[in-house]
Please model this.
Amino acid sequence: MDYETVVGLEVHVELATKTKIFCGCGTGFGAEPNTQVCPVCSGMPGSLPVFNKEVARFAALAGLALNCEINRRNVFDRKNYFYPDLPKAYQISQLYQPICRNGFLEIGGGKKIGIHEIHMEEDAGKLLHDPWEDCSNIDYNRCGVPLIEIVSEPDFRSAGEVVDYLERLREILLYLGVSDCKMQEGSMRADINLSVRPSGAAEFGVRTEMKNMNSFKAIYRAVEFEAKRQTELIDAGGRVTQETRRWDDNKEASFSMRSKENAQDYRYFPDPDLLALDLSEEFIEEIRANMPESAASKRSRFTGELGLSAYDAGVLTAEKPLCDLFERTSALCGNPKEAANLIIVEICRLIKEDAATTEDACRRVAPESLAALIKMITGGEINRTVGKDALAAIFREQADPEEYVRERNLLIVNDAGLIDEVIDRVLEANEKSVADFRAGKEKAFGFLVGQAMKELKGTANPGAVNGALKKRLGQ
Ligand SMILES: [Zn+2]
Model:
């Protein structure tokens, strides 16, 4: 029998707020364990949560970018369950009145994936298993870090669609600045709900869930595997059990973990410590008016207004730090094409050579230095070979381009007296070429320019040599 795969996604994204959702603790990644905690986020009795409004701003921003309706009245609910990384024994989330509803995201081929809702909630801590001591340690730093959970409709029919959606979603959130979306650090992770049904059937099959997936590759493989597992199970006369499964990327297989809970198992109820949050029309309108430009809009502006190729626009927007560097440099030097070339060809090559991350590389290269270098190249002060070397020095040693060129005497000779002198010598030594040129052979002119440039050891301005030579030949 033919089967159709049906997938819905729940994507958790850590928001880039400076402080946590219900207290003033910091949210930076990688701090010493249990140094970013207070009575509120470590669940001490008697402590009271205070909502950080930045969280609502980021959540609404994401919602607007994903074509959602924004709920003016927001309520927080307690989701009760016990786990060692959750000291309060409940998570504050939104069940009944999430901040965003009814959105969509368009993927390849114009297909719209429905966004059922986006809700705000707090993250839990982290259990660190210590195999040497054979025990588990708990780091509460992540407790109370704000999350949004983006819940899609079950609109995906293949692993390819799932990854396409996740890539676009990640790009949107990155350019909004609401999250760094670092999957390897857990700031973006997806739960996959998957079922299969006979092709053409109207009802959904029984679904399984794979939680906390944090790589696109693993997600692709997990969807393919789980769809095949369910199909084969049904074909062999078995039944799919509703359960949570763990994906093991090394074994490339999923394993049963526990039976899946339903909402009623969590005994949700409105959190009595938090007031309802009413978002004003002005609050929403202000967010809408100040929405950062999306990568897609940047790409069309780069190809339209700035005249870059579609390929170049794609490379520049593939990673946000690179795009920021490009935009700032091109604004400073007023030459987007030169800026794009230098970044795409030279900087990307240096990144590869040094096995650097784009983020680190872009931190090292000051747009001011890059713009100054571009001005020197286009202004005919240095030639491109010198420009390349200077760029490597900017990249590796944060060199100042003007100093670099001056100290090494690499400025192009614009000294008209010197150029004339050299041209005199060249004309004398190449009488035949001069005669050829006068007889109408254009090629001879190029040869004479080449000879003069050689005499000047490549540091002359070719334009100046050209002009001086033309003048001498009475052109
Ligand atoms: Zn705290």
